[in-house]
Model the fold of this input.
Amino acid sequence: MGRTLHDMVVVITGASAGIGKALAEELHRYGAKLVLSARRTDRLEELNRALGGKHLCVQADVSKRADCEELIATSLAHFGRIDTLVCNAGFGLYIPVAETSPEDVRRLFETNVYGTTDCIHAAVPHMRLQEKRDEYRGQIMIVSSAAARRTPPYLGIYGATKAAQLMLAEAMRVELRDSKIAVTSVHPIMTKTEFGQVAESQSAVKMPSSRRAGSQSVEHVARRMVAAIERPVPEVWPSRPSRWALSLATLVPKTTDRLLRKLRQKVQRQNAGNDA
Ligand SMILES: NC(=O)c1ccc[n+]([C@@H]2O[C@H](COP(=O)([O-])OP(=O)(O)OC[C@H]3O[C@@H](n4cnc5c(N)ncnc54)[C@H](OP(=O)(O)O)[C@@H]3O)[C@@H](O)[C@H]2O)c1
Done:
């Protein structure tokens, strides 16, 4: 038997755009009670209005620990429990590793990794004390990336944050099992969202259009996430071929390097004059 989505309380970070917004829309269809969180509250309020206005909007910059703690406290005060915490807020930069400033490295880790651990640290003690609902006390869902398994050039620091998220999920899945808290990592690839625009607006490098175009819809990713909220699984890979290809890539690093050098050359050609 799966978990009942109706009246389930789901906290979503990064709900103002892309995957987080699509997830909110999909969960709303099943009658879940949502906490919509991000920095842009106008976007959250607009989304909530479009969904009938019964959800809770909470402004939070997940790179700030106090905001993460406040988000969890406000969610619990309003709904009394958290059935699933979706750590989705994140961004990337297109920069070679050695050229990434120490400030940008920290910025990426503060949002993508510490934003995840700070929300988890605030939420899990409460989840442990909750009554079980459909066999589970709660669930932590972390939106990592396909890049967690093998990162392409120009996404090295971003990939490091996504690999860190995967490791957190793998360890926690075992640690929290006896507490009946499920842990699921999500591994999208090339999904059509604002991710590319946000990355390019802060990066000197432009990635080839095939990487930016997006091969997965947010609706597809959101449907796969909802299925894993209803019936928790360890990992969600919205593109099955990417799961196989990237798992194989870890076994043949030299061949994978050769393939990825071609991508690097393409990026260099497209950015000629940009010192890519
Ligand atoms: N799109 C892809 O191809 C892809 C592939 C693999 C993994 N992912 C992952 O999927 C997740 C969602 O990304 P997306 O593709 O949906 O990108 P997006 O459309 O740019 O959405 C990113 C969301 O994160 C929020 N966010 C960013 N920094 C934040 C911060 N410091 N505090 C709170 N919220 C913050 C943004 O809201 P505000 O700006 O309003 O705060 C926005 O709601 C990310 O973790 C990303 O790494 C995406």
